[in-house]
Amino acid sequence: MTLTIVGLGRGHIDDLSRRAWRALENARNVYLRTTSHPAVPHLPPSARYISLDDTQDGVERVLDVAKLEDVVYAVPGDPMVGDATVTRLLALANDAGITVKIVNGISFVEPALKLLGVNALDGLQVLDGAAVAAMHHPPINPDLPALLAHVSRENASEVKRVLLNQYPDEFEVTLLHSIGTDEARIERLALRDLDQRAPLSAVLFVPALGGMASFQRFEEIIAHLRAPEGCPWDRKQIHESLRPYLIEEAYEVLEAIDNGDWQALSEELGDVMLQAVLHTQIAVDHGEFRMTDVLRHINNKLVRRHPHVWGDTQVSGAEQVLANWDTLKQQEHAEKGTARESLLDGVPKGLPALMQTYQYRQKAAKIGFDWEKVEDVEAKVREELEEVVNAKDAEQMFEEMGDLLFALVNWAHWLGVKDPESALREANAKFYRRFRYIEAQLNGKTDEQYPIAQLEVLWNEAKAKGL
After folding, report:
1. Neighbour tally for 201: CB within 10 Å
2. CA-to-CA distance for 66 and 96, rounded, in angstroms?
3. Are 324 and 313 in contact (CB under 8 A)?
4. Separation between Cα atoms, residue 393 and residue 140, nearest integer Å
5. Which of 57, 77, 135, 177 has its CA at 20 to 30 Å from residue 274's CA atom?
């Protein structure tokens, strides 16, 4: 059996090729991806035309027919330009052993570029709007322009939703109406208004966002810095020399979050990304791995560990998601021959001690190694405090103080404090605010000692002011 995929061109019937006309004229049944095409009323009358506009899965329907008889599938423009249904059909037909013939047509790209006065050499990206509508983030490099075919009233709101994940709502885009006909025109509008203005079918032009906003540009800049003509400092770096910077940048992210400063957060996240991309470029230079390896690994891991999103697994809530995550992680380590000897081995040794303590107790509790009630934990805290008080020397004091701090982290959990690291950080911030108040009242004269009673008065003033 043969499946013939015919391109109807972008508009006027005169643009239909003679080969396409013959394919349609000799066909018994022609399946139309859409009847919203100017040439449809003028197609050869000898064939029976079947619209797939209201069909939930037109690809499967065409494939089922093609398994039984020769069939023609007609699409706007050129089959090989911006049509996701054709891409899917080709893959499925190949698996089913169906012969496929392509009859090219004039795509929407050429007349669109003419209307817009845009050159495709500017890095034009061509996508199927219907496919984009089914996504959550646009597969578009924002430093380059893009054309989206098959944007319609039915999918415009979803296309807008996806694009807004990358572009601002006031960003100007262009709708191209009736491409390939004498009525062709363009309409410029804000992205937020797309679903209010989309016609039955149109092409959407999304210009470059500009402002060096793409991940690809980021990678180019880092690669340039590491190149022979780049920066001596960046070229000098190795994985080990960058260790302190990654930790420092991560803490600056936390500081921005604690301050509720979202502009600072956007900047600090960029600094963390700088570390990730710089490490990756160093790896490229040394032949260790590439960014594609990094992204492939994390993408596959996220999909693999979310079978309730990309699979048939059912979950009752977030706790079950975490349980499944741990189970899948253990399976992966076993398959790779890297199974951990202890539950605690999954906790990074380089974590801040407070965070490490909390994660140790979380891991140990999974096998029941935990207190039975909060009163037992309180008793343990008092016991450790007593041992600190009765310590006989500095070495014992050091050890007992560590035990006390460990017990306090356990107590924090039982009291519902799920993030003692943040609790202590907030206490530090509070101390900073109140101590700054004391310094202000002393008129900056902090080069001498003051009676503690005087300082406590100022401290209580700061506390009363809500600092």
Report:
1. 21
2. 10
3. yes
4. 65
5. 135
- Rounded Cα gap, residues 291 and 300, in angstroms: 14
Nearest partner of 53 among 83, 73, 33, 38, judged by Cα: 33
Neighbours of 269 (CB within 10 A): 14
Domains belonging to the chain, first-starting first, are 2-106 (3.40.1010.10), 110-206 (3.30.950.10), 215-304 (1.10.287.1080), 346-418 (1.10.287.1080), 422-464 (no CATH)
Q: Which residues of the chain have pLDDT under 50?
A: none
pLDDT at 399: 94
Contacts of 34 (CB under 8 A, 6+ apart): 51, 52, 53, 76, 150, 201
CA distances from 3 to 7, 12, 89, 129 (A): 13, 25, 9, 24
Its sign, for the CA torsion 379, 382, 388, 392, is: negative
Q: Which residues contact 332 (CB under 8 A, 6 or more apart)?
A: 304
Closest listed residue to residue 150, CA positions, set 167, 126, 172, 120: 126
d(CA 342, CA 227): 43
Rounded Cα–Cα distance for residues 297 and 316 (Å): 27
Please write the tens of the pLDDT for every residue from 162-198. Answer: 999 999 999 999 999 988 788 889 999 999 999 998 7
pLDDT at 3: 95
The two tokens of residue 140 are 């578009």
Residue 48: helix, strand or coil by DSSP?
Answer: strand
Contact 54, 95 (CB under 8 A): no
Are 101 and 4 spatial neighbours (Cβ–Cβ below 8 Å)?
Answer: yes
* CA dihedral for 13, 14, 15, 17, sign (positive or negative): positive
What is the per-residue pLDDT across 314-362, written as a single tens digit (0 to 9) for each? 999 998 998 898 888 888 877 887 777 787 887 888 788 888 998 888 8
Residue 36: the pLDDT is: 83
Cβ atoms of residues 186 and 174 within 8 Å: yes
